[in-house]
Amino acid sequence: MDTSGDKRRPTAPHRLEDRLHALARAHQVPGAQLAVHSGGTTRAMHTGVLDSITGEPFTAGTAVPIGSLTKCYTATVVMLLVADGDVELDDQLGDHVPELRRAGPPCTVRQVLSHTAGLASGPDSDHVAALTTARYLQAHCADGTLVMEPGTDFSYSNAGYVAAGRLIETVTGMSWQDAVRSILLDPLGTVPSFIGAPGTPERQAARGHSANKASGRTRPVRQNLAPAEAAAGALMASAPDLVALALAHTHDGPGGLLPPELAEEMRRPVPGADPGVLADGWGLGFALFEQGETTWFGHDGNAQGTSCYLRADPHTGTVVAFTSNSNSGADMWHELSAELEEFTGIPVPGTPARPRPAATPMAATAQCTGTYLNGDIEYQVTMSDSGTLALSVDGDVPAPLVCHEDLTCDLVDPSSGRRIPGGRFVRDPRTGTVDRIQLSGRMARKSVLV
Question: Which stretches make up the Beta-lactamase-related domain (predicted)?
């Protein structure tokens, strides 16, 4: 039968590899990896160099700082402790984190893993470089720093995963790095590699890069993750490593690592968790992405000068992992993911798929103006004399803001006029007044009216 017109026919691997090379050049990405698991087989490919200064080539095993994808590993280790009976998902966080036993938030382990604990995002890494984990938790995870009541909504939190890492240390008696290595990485066959830790002789590590598309220049950057933040973002891994993690959560993975019912629990949407522009839903450690009638799980990860992505379909066992050593890798991923159906025969959700309802812009209202706080981050929404809204973050130049009748809002690029979905304002269910704003999945509570 002639299948030349069948759009679901997989593309030859060499054609996809050619496309990877071309997109890396087009987006000023020094090096990248792509791994696709489909039909029981994993195909891995790579392009470019791991360091633009040395010119050392990328390999399939090059370890890339994967940023927040580390949270998927941390959450999986917590779930393995649940499987062993050492932790219950509905235990209070303070039951396992001694630093939060008295002054910590009244949230559960489940809420921490799903970013529904109400914890602030967390401070800039440079500001906490000298803090121990205990000092970090006491300063940034106290009850008084909550941006919402636990379990009522979604607010992405690095600080929450610092607490999850401390839970792992308390329960296992090991450092977070040692626990992740022995409980998860070794069984997966992943060679451990961490930001800030001594390198592994047999494993190369990619250096992050900043690409300036206006000048055409790409320069190396350093990783600045604070030691206390390790559980939220310190892992380095390859695209095949990410595939191995995802397979541990599907029927194609190694048997006996994670009980199927707990893997399913991690992929189940948490009620009331609306991550806004980040994803279509959230489970326990995984973001959820809708593609037709199928819900994929995965996560995005950005370290200093790296952009990494994981998507997995638990029904077909298809997994796609992409790593790159440039901030411009995000644009490369968005273009590449849109073309992957030719290779996998299945459309891959590169970004959230939820259709945005036709939103009607509303007249600017003083209800939305004010100063909103998420930990150390200050968002200020102001209204001009002409009645237009603007958003400023930590005192930066304000950007125009368009609010809709459903309280979603778009940022407006001043140079192009293009609208960028930014987030949503949230009303207090008791009073009906706007008291919070969610931007990039992070909730901020109104502090002072302007």
Answer: 20-331
Q: Whole-angstrom Cα distance, residue 304 to residue 433?
A: 38
Is residue 264 helix, strand or coil? helix
The enclosing domain of 399 has a CATH number of 2.40.128.50
If asked whether residues 396 and 273 sit together in one domain, one would say: no
Q: In DSSP terms, which residues pair with 403 in a beta bridge?
A: 409
d(CA 191, CA 375) in angstroms, rounded, equals 35
β-bridge partners, 217: 212
CB 211 within 8 A of CB 307: no
Please give the full DSSP string across 298-361, using - where no structure is assigned: EEEE--TT-EEEEEE-TTT--EEEEEESSTTHHHHHHHHHTTTHHHHSS---SS--PPPP-PPB
Quote the CA–CA distance of 27 and 112 in Å, as a whole number. 36
The pLDDT score that the predictor gives to residue 102 is 86
Do the domain assignments include residue 6?
no
Q: Six-digit token pair at 129? A: 């470089």
Taking the C-alpha atoms of residue 325 and residue 30, their distance in angstroms, rounded to an integer, is: 7
Same domain, 68 and 176: yes
pLDDT digits (tens, 9 = 90+) for 99-124: 999 888 899 999 999 999 999 999 89
* Side chain identity at residue 390, one-letter code: A
- Per-residue model confidence as pLDDT tens digits over 126-161: 889 989 999 999 999 988 889 999 999 999 999 999
Calculate mean pLDDT across residues 356-383. 80
Q: Tell me the whole-structure pTM to 2 decimals.
A: 0.93
Query: Which position has the token pair 């001009």?
Result: 384
